[in-house]
Amino acid sequence: MTKPIKLLTALTPERRERLMTLAREVSFREDAPIFEEGGVADRFWVVRSGRVDLYQQVTQLRRVTVASLGAGDLLGWSWLFPPHEWDFGAVAFSPVRAYEFEAAPVLELSEQDAGLGLSLMRIVAEILAYRLESTRVQLLESFQHPLR
């Protein structure tokens, strides 16, 4: 499987610089919820340090981690697509520092700079494809080695 793509390093320096004008530095303490499934998806983050777990709530008392994200990883893509609700929940597994981007200004900038908008869409699509493939591999491995 290919290496995961990182949003900020995949952009050209000029486009990265334009996007970063909209960034705000934030931090989350260990075990802090970042967003919950079904909540309003109006922003995204690029993790600078620490680890974030994406999870699916299976029952009221049980949740399953579906991915772990670290430095350079994109956290959140639901802001791009209606109904703009989070498909998963996210929690800081360790102390996390990140760049936070509000969706509305990023979308506005993408309309003003079509090249940046197209680059963002392509990079996010590539990230999603990588994560889908990773999940497929994990599922196949779990069925090859079922618990007895």
UniProtKB/TrEMBL annotation:
PROSITE patterns: CNMP_BINDING_3. Pfam families: cNMP_binding. Signal peptide: none annotated. Residues 7-76 form the Cyclic nucleotide-binding domain. PANTHER family: CRP FAMILY TRANSCRIPTIONAL REGULATORY PROTEIN, HTH-TYPE TRANSCRIPTIONAL REGULATOR ARCR. This is Cyclic nucleotide-binding domain-containing protein. It comes from Streptomyces fragilis.
